[in-house]
Amino acid sequence: MRSVIELLHEGSRIWSDMPYLGEKNGETWSTTSFLQTDRISLSFAASLVTRGLAKGDAVAILSEGRTSWVIGEFGVLKAGGIPVPLCQTLSPRQLAKRLELSRAKAVLASERNLRKISAALSLRGSRLPVVCISDKTAKARETLADCGFSEGKDAWFLSDLIVEGQHGLDTRPIAAGNAFGGKPLIWVMREIEKDLRESDTATLFIDPSEEDTPEVIAITHGNYLECGLTAYKRALQDGWKTPILFPLETPFAHSAAIYACLALGTAMHFLPLPDGGTPSLGEVSRLLRSLKPEYVLLTAGIAEGFRADIERNIGTKGSLARKLFARGLNKEIERMGDGKTRVSFGTRLGCYFPWKAADALSFPGIRASFGKKTRCILAGDGLGDYECRFFGAIGLPVKQKFALDRRFSRPTAAAEKAELTPERESARL
Description:
Elements: H1 4-14, E1 19-25, E2 28-33, H2 34-50, E3 58-62, H3 67-78, E4 82-85, H4 92-102, E5 104-109, H5 114-124, E6 130-132, H6 138-146, E7 155-157, H7 158-170, H8 185-194, E8 201-206, E9 216-220, H9 221-228, H10 230-235, E10 241-244, H11 251-264, E11 267-270, H12 281-291, E12 295-298, H13 300-314, H14 319-336, H15 345-361, H16 363-368, E13 376-379, H17 385-393, E14 398-400, H18 414-417, E15 424-426
Parallel strand pairs: 1-11, 3-4, 3-5, 5-6, 6-7, 10-11, 12-13, 13-14
Antiparallel strand pairs: 1-2, 8-9, 14-15
Helix pairs in contact: 1-2, 1-11, 2-3, 2-7, 4-5, 14-15, 14-17
């Protein structure tokens, strides 16, 4: 296997009609299967190729996490391009700097980010083709026009380009003098995919924290295939589903969400979240209860916020509930130990009954906030030891590791250079 596109093909072959991507649509979840993702992204890629996207061309992405992001990113990869995910918290000036730095040839943006992209392009002094990956509604078309874009000239909707690309794939060339020398478009797409190598850049990340000289991180296909998936296969089970509570603009989101879910047959569901900031457990608890995930994928910041929400909520329950929770939590952390030195039998026995009381009366309600089927939490690097012990003590073991080590994110011999930090798991002894 040489590229993540081959991983997508394998996923569509093995998991086929099983859900891969999901979004909340009213009161129900609408899903897109592995096979549909493979086919739809090919149609979008065909449209990009016919419009002149060449191998190595960068395409910026500015959006909240959503199904169309994943389809759009796979489409860029199938066309030979390089996706450049950008952070939504960046200012127009910072966005303009990153568009210039990445030499982006086009931009994929959701409706809520169109105005920011328009401002960034104005500061940059030149326009780029923009693809709106939100639904083609009257409001979205109005926003597009208000931002100064002309639909069909310098801006398009993803749904229209998918239809256009599929038409090109279904149509036989009528002259040898066409743009592809008389070759059917499907042949051209196969040649582009066949030309992909492990050393080719699969994603270009630009550090959002740096102002003037941001760090650029190039992660190759080989990095994802050799580094990013091994630990997830050990930690998770095939066919599970997980909510996505954060944007897809980081290496962790790509390795732990997009590609790990693809390799494991896991369905990732994008939750509708308020603009900006970190979601609270209270905001997403109802959605988690309805989704019933087997595990919850969290960044370190969101996990720390959830821990603070739990402690704050317990603080409103009264002194008896607070004492029961605190005593049970502390005794279970003591009973678990540090994972290196075995805790004595007397200590474990003395800690068991306070923990058992809290596990019967206090912890079940907290676990239910994450969904009745949730078995563990998969967290990003940076989550502190206390948070790992905290969630482990209430019955939600934390599995944590690097998504990809930055030192080996360059397009080098990924299989030889790959290195991951050890996986940590807080589980009851």
